[in-house]
Amino acid sequence: MEFQDKVVLVTGGSRGMGRRMVEAFAERGAHVVIASRKLDACVELAESVRAEHGVRALPVAANVSSWPDCDALIDAVYNEYGRVDVLINNAGLSPLYPSLDQVSEALFDKVIGVNLKGPFRLSSVIGTRMAEGDGGVIINVSSIAAIRPGPHELPYATAKAGLNVITESMARAFGPKVRVNCIQAGPFRTDISNAWPPEAFERIERTFALGRVGEPEELVGAALYFASDASSYCTGAVLRLDGGAP
Fold it and tell me: Where in the sequence is the signal peptide annotated (predicted)?
């Protein structure tokens, strides 16, 4: 029970990969903070993990693209628990667009805000507090798009490439008491994948080494590894978790 009574904050924690990580840490005794834009979904999951695992769970509505929302989330967590042991920057957004010249300023700013601006603010403030206190772990969830960008996901890929950079730079900024690592995820079956056309799945089956998309549960092991003492000499790392993307 290495995570017994640890405080784990997961953004985008009410659904998809975030929900699976919340459940996994709660199952192992951690108190969890579930942050996403929709409070009802956060409350529902918080009630579920409290009942099933007997841990504390704090639901917080937050749009991480807003720094005031990030700061309010941080205040809520520290007022409730007094610390954060593990921060997981999981919230992500990748809206479709017809062509690059049709990318609006609003869409660009929204994608950069959720995928890069928010993690920067949360990691900067919480990482500083961790470094001044008993230490901690920051885990960023990036994307294979950061190194294999396609024309229909360029703002998203740009943001995730920035998140890879933040991982290494903040590992240096907050070490040795804080470890910062990144899971560079490939295609996973989440709400986002519901919008993919059939040919996207066909291409994955044809070209990826494992021949399929990942399931949310398959990201949990990497998160537990990075959050645990098993990775005590690992920081600034970007782990490809993409089923063997070409």
Answer: none
Note the pLDDT tens digit of each residue in 24-57: 999 999 999 999 999 999 999 999 999 999 999 9
Options 156, 193, 228, 232, the catalytic residue? 156
Annotated catalytic residue, options 14, 160, 169, 228: 160
Q: Is residue 38 flagged as an active site residue?
A: no
Q: What is the dihedral of CA 97, 245, 13, 111, to 10 degrees?
A: -30
Question: Catalytic pick from 65, 94, 143, 231?
Answer: 143
Domain for residue 1, yes or no? Answer: no
Give the pLDDT of residue 175: 98
Question: Whole-angstrom Cα distance, residue 214 to residue 190?
Answer: 9
* Active-site residue flag, 160: yes
CA separation (Å) from 77 to 116, 131, 137?
Answer: 21, 17, 16
Query: What is the tally of structural domains in the chain?
Result: 1
How confident is residue 195, by pLDDT bands cut at 50, 70 and 90? low
In a domain, 246, yes or no: no
| CATH code of the domain covering residue 122 | 3.40.50.720
Q: What is the pTM of this model?
A: 0.95
Continuous segment of H or E residues that includes residue 172: helix 154-174
**Domain span at residue 22?**
7-241
